[in-house]
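Working notes for the structural subgroup meeting. M.R. asked for a predicted model of this chain before we commit to crystallization trials. I am recording the input and output together here so anyone reviewing the notebook later can reproduce the run.

Input as submitted:
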Amino acid sequence: MGIIIAIDGPAGSGKSSTAKEVARRLGFTYIDTGAMYRSVTLEIIRRKIDICDEDQIEKIARESRIQFQWIGDKHHILLNGEDISDEIRSADVASLVSPVSAIAGVRKILAERQRQMAQDDNIVMEGRDIGTNVFPDADFKFYMDADIRVRAERRIKDYQSIGQELTVVEIVRELEKRDKIDSSRLHSPLKKADDAIIIDTTNLSFEEQVEKIVKIIQQ
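Returned structure, recorded in token form:
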């Protein structure tokens, strides 16, 4: 197993874009675990599966073939061979991904798959339980966070990029709901690992937060 860099934090903290750039600069493989949960959630929505039907949801998680692929400078997510990179960023998926992620069987299936992905490469893996559950012995652990309004303003740009218009108030409400579910779930809740380095991105530019993490790793 190579070097493992774990980056955790809530939605909108900047961890995805930062982790992606850190991986690019270091020449590491980037793994977006949140996209894996979103992919399963999208498939549930498409099949109109009841959110309470855990057996069916676990079956979907087990059978879904989720792959990551770079095309030019854009990171794509494929579900059973279909590019769903934009579709998994929709508000519909965002509203259901936390309860889907709270299902113990789904977490077990995807966490095992995440460990398999890291067998042979140096990786930057980001999510909510990487440093606490998936790789508690990661070489480097970071926990990114930011003021919730700042996080909401960042999310607006994400939604606009896929043609959805939401207000800051709507997104703050969505983030508060997701934070509560993610941090209070029974299995692998969102929390900072005891030995993780906190990166507060509220007042940091994108370049500053990337540089901060890269310098710590290189030192």
